[in-house]
Amino acid sequence: MGKSETTILDTSGVNRALTRISHEILERNRGTQDLVLVGIRSGGDHLADELCRRIAEIEGEAPLVGAVDITLYRDDLGSRGSLPMGKTQIPFDVDDKRIVLVDDVLYTGRTIRAAMDALIDLGRPRSIQLAVLVDRGHRELPIRPDYIGRNVPTSREEEISVVFDDAMLPIEVRLVKAAT
Q1: What residue numbers bound the domain in which 98 lies?
Q2: What is the per-residue pLDDT across 9-48, written as a single tens digit (0 to 9) for each?
């Protein structure tokens, strides 16, 4: 029993989605003042770096960027056994900042909840917005993204895979189905 893969977004599609999200972030926040991007490891952190680069190209000024590891904030640690710890790198004060939390795929919402808990432990942001490359549905918590690259309705048996190149730039999004 193998797997079948379908390309949902090719490199051009990923680039268009990230450029659109960058413009939407700038428009909603009226520029980069007090704006910070925080990517969720691992995947969201690379997307946050790329969004930062694109925002700097558009606006002429880059927002601050950081990364958060949510391992200790997960609500399923007991059932998963030991998970490798990543590193939270937020070299700035989050108080009164407009944070755009960035992740590659939004599914149940539990990862986002854990990331918000981690951020709030660091301070009191003015707001937390959510940017995702793919929203696949199946929410278990009342979490909704502010910026979406692509909505991809999926079954629980399917997976979404974001493919990164050697420079950690997103190049493709694939829908992976177990072959029957």
Answers
A1: 12-154
A2: 999 999 999 999 999 999 999 999 999 999 999 899 999 9
Neighbour tally for 74: CB within 10 Å: 16
From 25, 70, 64, 19, select the one nearest 44 (Cα to Cα): 70
Asked if the structure places residue 35 within a domain, the reply is yes
For every residue of 109-143, which 3-state class applies, written as one string?
Answer: CHHHHHHHHHHHHHCCCCEEEEEEEEECCCCCCCC
Q: What is the pLDDT of residues 96-141, one digit of tens each?
A: 999 999 999 999 999 999 999 999 999 999 999 999 999 999 999 9
Looking at the domain assignment, is residue 20 inside a domain? Answer: yes
Domain membership of residue 30 (yes or no) is yes
Q: Prior bond to 42 cis, omega within 30?
A: yes
How many other β-carbons are positioned within 10 Å of the β-carbon of residue 34? 15
5 occurs within a structural domain: no
